[in-house]
Every structure is written in structure tokens, then in C-alpha cells.
Design a protein that fits this description.
alpha/beta; six-stranded mixed sheet; globular; 15 strands
Length: about 350
């Protein structure tokens, strides 16, 4: 295998020059995303006094990572000593008083417990590192995006000061963040674009591979083994492809399909549902899209709070929803693109359970 050099590992430099507030960095396992995020934040504290928050989904995740948080930092910061003191990340400059000289450069927090910090000010926090934002076990918090928005607002206080580094392997394209903000990365991926800016530039998504990291690890013994015997995992772990990136069930909506109804969801926005039939009208197919027909004759919602004189609340036991879930189970739903499929799978997951 070719030697992996420091230049082959991840660097934040390019994405930070794009000046987005929320930055999703999706890269192969072992690329060095977390390492460079920590190193960047420590450097910024030493130079400017800017603090950071290291965020995970649960306290169990924090407990597993915080004690060794600085283990890979010390060789790069000669003249400094690091420690974790409770939920504080602290640093001591050589020569400073070892009792009074410790300074807090960062905080550890769990999103599941973020409600407890709403009254806590963080005026010097300029960075949030949300590690493993797309979890391997695919278990997101209920209303996670809203919880994160509230946490972010608690920290930033409308100051446009705080930037977020969302770090993840290419676990799953079906996630509540992309769904909530109607982010479709299909074109970015198909065009091979490393960076894509969304939501007016507030969000940037990077598919990271620096210096041919993937090409080099693919030549390791384990990499060659995966490529030969487990191509699905190789595409995820080496090629940085989402585990659910599949062309199955993707079809354009045929011209003879008619618009059936609009379906609003509690968390993942609205979907347009088209209905098509085969030539003898014996087989019905549902086509799911993010394209919505204005003033649709039929409009349903899964959110009881969304009922209006023109929008009807439906439960998972109603025929409208049962037809969709049965179609999903048996592969009879079709989607106009991969992102529609990914987004709607999150809705189905809530309805029928994971």
C-alpha cells in the first residue's frame, strides 16, 4: 500500500473559506475529520480565546469519548498540557500556575440533555463539533433537528457568531437534517462536486477525500479484501458512498399518472403522491415526490396540529396510509429521485417502526 501522508488526511481549510454557518463533512472512516476539527478549535482558542462545544447525541456517547479527547492533540501543541475536568475541556500553558492557570477551551454536551442548558450563556463559543451526526445505528432523537436548532440558538443567541461542524461517515442519505431542509445531494454526488451549498449558503455539505485517501486505503490488505468480497461495505467505508444510495425504485413520474394528493408530515415536510396504472388498469403504482401541486383537491396530514378546513388528519390505520405502507413493504412505491426516497423512508420508519 502507498504510504498515507499527512496531506492525505482531512483539512477543514477549504470548507471554512466558504463561510457557511452549518458545515456537514462526510468522509470515509479514518480520514481524520474529528482530529482536524479538534485541532482547529484548540488552535483558535490559543490564538483568539474562542471556545468550542463537543456535542454528541447522548451522555453515553460523551462518556465513551471525553476521557481520551485530547490524547491525539498533545503532540501537536508543544508547551501546553490538556485535561478533561468534568464536562470542561481545559488547557494549561507551560509555566502557568498548575492550580489557577487552567483555562476552559471547550465544553462537552449531549443533545438529548440540551434542554437543561437553555439558560446557560456561552458568549465565547464560536464552534460546535457535532460528532457522528449520522449514527451507525440510525437512531436519531425524536424531533432531533428542532432540538438541535434550539441548542444552537441557546449558544449563538442570534449573533451569527457560532459555526457548526457536523461530522459523519457516509452512513445514510435518509436523515432528518437533509429531509427537514429539503436538501437533495443527488446532483452534487453525480457531478462529483466536493462542496455543495444549500439554503442560501447557510449550509455547506462536503464529500471529503483528500490526497487520494480512498485510493490508498483501497490498496491495503483489508481494503483489497473488502473490494473483492464485500463491495457494499467497501463503497461505504472506502468510497464514501451512503449505505442507502441505491437506484432501486427510482422512476420518473409517467405522463399518464394523475396527482392523487398532498401528504404533510409531522417532521419531514410535505410530499406529492401521484397514482399511475398499467394499460388494463389492473395494477396501481404510487409515485412519491417533493413536488407539490398547489391547491390540490385532496390534502392530508400526519400532524394533528396541521388540520384545517381543507386538510384532513389521517392516522396510520387509515386506508390512505395503509396503502402507502403496504406499497413500501412490497416494493410497489416509486420515487422521482434518490432524495425523495431517502426522505420518505424516514416517514415510513416513524409510521411502521424501525
Amino acid at each position: 500500500m502507498s504510504e498515507i501522508k499527512e496531506a492525505d488526511y482531512y483539512s477543514l481549510h477549504r470548507i471554512l473559506t466558504l463561510n457557511s454557518a452549518w458545515n456537514f463533512i462526510i468522509g470515509a472512516r479514518g480520514l481524520g475529520k474529528t482530529f482536524d476539527a479538534k485541532r482547529h478549535c484548540v488552535r483558535d482558542f490559543i490564538k483568539n480565546g474562542h471556545q468550542f462545544i463537543y456535542l454528541r447525541r447522548s451522555w453515553e456517547d460523551i462518556k465513551k469519548s471525553k476521557d481520551s479527547f485530547f490524547a491525539d492533540m498533545e503532540p501537536f501543541f508543544k508547551g501546553f498540557t490538556f485535561r478533561v475536568n468534568g464536562n470542561l475541556a481545559q488547557i494549561l500553558r507551560d509555566g502557568d500556575d498548575d492550580k489557577k492557570g487552567w483555562k476552559t477551551c471547550g465544553f462537552f454536551a449531549a443533545l438529548s440533555q440540551a434542554g437543561g442548558v437553555k439558560s446557560v450563556p456561552y458568549p465565547n463559543v464560536y464552534w460546535i463539533i457535532y460528532d457522528e451526526v449520522f449514527p451507525d445505528n440510525l437512531m436519531f432523537l425524536r424531533n432531533e433537528v428542532t432540538q438541535f436548532e434550539e441548542f444552537y440558538n441557546t449558544v449563538d443567541r442570534w449573533s451569527d457568531r457560532t459555526r457548526v461542524l457536523f461530522l459523519s461517515n457516509a452512513v445514510i442519505q435518509a436523515n432528518p437534517y437533509f429531509s427537514k431542509f429539503k436538501i437533495d445531494t443527488s446532483k452534487q454526488q453525480s457531478d462529483g462536486e466536493q462542496f455543495g451549498r444549500y439554503c442560501g449558503g447557510f449550509i455547506c455539505i462536503e464529500f471529503a477525500d483528500y490526497g487520494g485517501f480512498s485510493a490508498k486505503v483501497s490498496q491495503s490488505r483489508f481494503g483489497k479484501f473488502l473490494l473483492a468480497h464485500d463491495s457494499d461495505y467497501a463503497e461505504y467505508a472506502i468510497d464514501n458512498r451512503f449505505l442507502d444510495d441505491s437506484p432501486e425504485l427510482i422512476n420518473r413520474i409517467p405522463s399518464n399518472a394523475h396527482y392523487g394528493y398532498t401528504l404533510d408530515t409531522e417532521t419531514y415536510g410535505s410530499f406529492g403522491v401521484w397514482i399511475g396504472y398499467n394499460s388494463d388498469f389492473t395494477k396501481r403504482t404510487y409515485y412519491i415526490s417533493r413536488t407539490i401541486k398547489a391547491n390540490a383537491e385532496k390534502h392530508f396530514t400526519l400532524d394533528y396540529r396541521g388540520v384545517t378546513p381543507n386538510i384532513v388528519y389521517v392516522k396510520k390505520t387509515d386506508n390512505i396510509i395503509r396503502n402507502l405502507t403496504d406499497g413500501y413493504r412490497t416494493g410497489k412505491l416509486r420515487f422521482d429521485n434518490k432524495q425523495s426516497k431517502a426522505d420518505f423512508s424516514m416517514v415510513i420508519g416513524q409510521i411502521i417502526g424501525k
